[in-house]
Amino acid sequence: MDKLQKVADYFNVSIDYLIGRTNNKYLSAQMEELVNDRELNAWLYDMIENRPDDIKRVKEIMDIMVANSKKDE
């Protein structure tokens, strides 16, 4: 897995792209699903337009999630 990540990093593409799970070079299959999720997009648009303070909180939560996932690696 480590070698696969190094190859993906070298070519600046996702691992999912390397192994054929997606045609998008830069997004994993999971991220591509999120980008195409209409309900999620509507929720984010509403948040951006109407609740800017919530965006700050969501970013903080995402930072914590990313930090925790890196600890697990």
Task: Provide an overview of this structure.
The structure is a single chain. This protein has helices at residues 2-11, 15-18, 29-35, 38-50, 52-72. Helices cover 75% and strands 0% of the residues. The longest helix is centred in the last third of the chain and has 21 residues, at 52-72. The termini are close together. It is mainly α.
Features:
75% helix; single chain; mainly alpha; 73 residues
What structural category characterises the helix and strand content?
A: mainly alpha
What is the CA-based Rg, rounded? 15 Å
Total helix count? 5
Strand content: under 5%
> How many distinct beta strands?
0
Helix content: over 70%
Query: Secondary-structure element sequence?
Result: HHHHH
Largest beta-sheet characterization: none
- Report the average pLDDT across residues: 80
Low-confidence spans: none
**Terminal CA distance:** 11 Å
Overall morphology: flat
Gist?
By secondary structure, the chain is mostly helical.
Fold blueprint:
Blueprint: H1 2-11, H2 15-18, H3 29-35, H4 38-50, H5 52-72
